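Sample pair:
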Amino acid sequence: MDREDVLMMKPREIKRLHLIHQALEKKITQQQAAEVAGLSTRQMRRLMRRIQQEGDRGILHRQRGQPSNRRITERMRQKVLHLYQQHYGDFGPTLASEKLRERHRITVHAETLRLWLRQAQLPYRQRKARPHRQWRPRRSCFGTMVQMDGSHHDWLEGRGPKLVLMGAIDDATNTVEARFYDHEGTVPALDSLRRWVQRYGIPASVYLDKHTTYRSRQGPSREEQLQGLERSQSQFERAMSELGVEVIHAHSPAAKGRIERLFGTFQDRLIKEMRLARVASLAAANRFLEQYL
């Protein structure tokens, strides 16, 4: 059989074609065929006439194989790809589509942009598969636990000084507080927590890593030995003790996964947003971050 004689039909079209042949052979009425096919009697009569005139091919939709009337023009496609290469080469399709809408007033769905990039063989940022881990259940209510950490990264991409992003995220609700500092230490950590307390109140516990800011590596003093402590407290731990906040130290970065994923998102999106806004100083970075959050 020639390839041109083969009709590629959808299951719904096969079902309708069978019903039409049944009606044409007078085995069922037109009304019965229409009811089973989910069509009006008028539509069924129209299809029957088309089958009689064109054969089985008449069951195919008239737009089969034709370009959509809603398709984006080739000129617009080329413009989008040019803008992507010029401004958003290291952006993922989702973020790039948002920026095209915000900055250029061009609406292109992220999946459409992803398809265009593949067709044009343009590299783009792809999400990496995360290794499976058994997640610790979230705390039951807001304020029970706050995860805190600092992220050392080239946030300004060489346009300004090296910065550290101190972040805090509520374990139950993912409420976020963050601020840039010039280093990670006791003062930035306490200032970061102070901002959280002023906005949301004192948390019941904080979940931290074993950075020397949060956990002292020195042995206990005589006074601390008398208190039954096995090691010396850091200044941050002493402050938390005065506030009645429990300090919990994570044994691995994966254990405090919520704050680590938050930093991963910021290192992907926030850094690009600050590049587009030409942020180049600590003060400007914090002003931008406040608006961004």
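The first strand starts at residue 146 and ends at 153.
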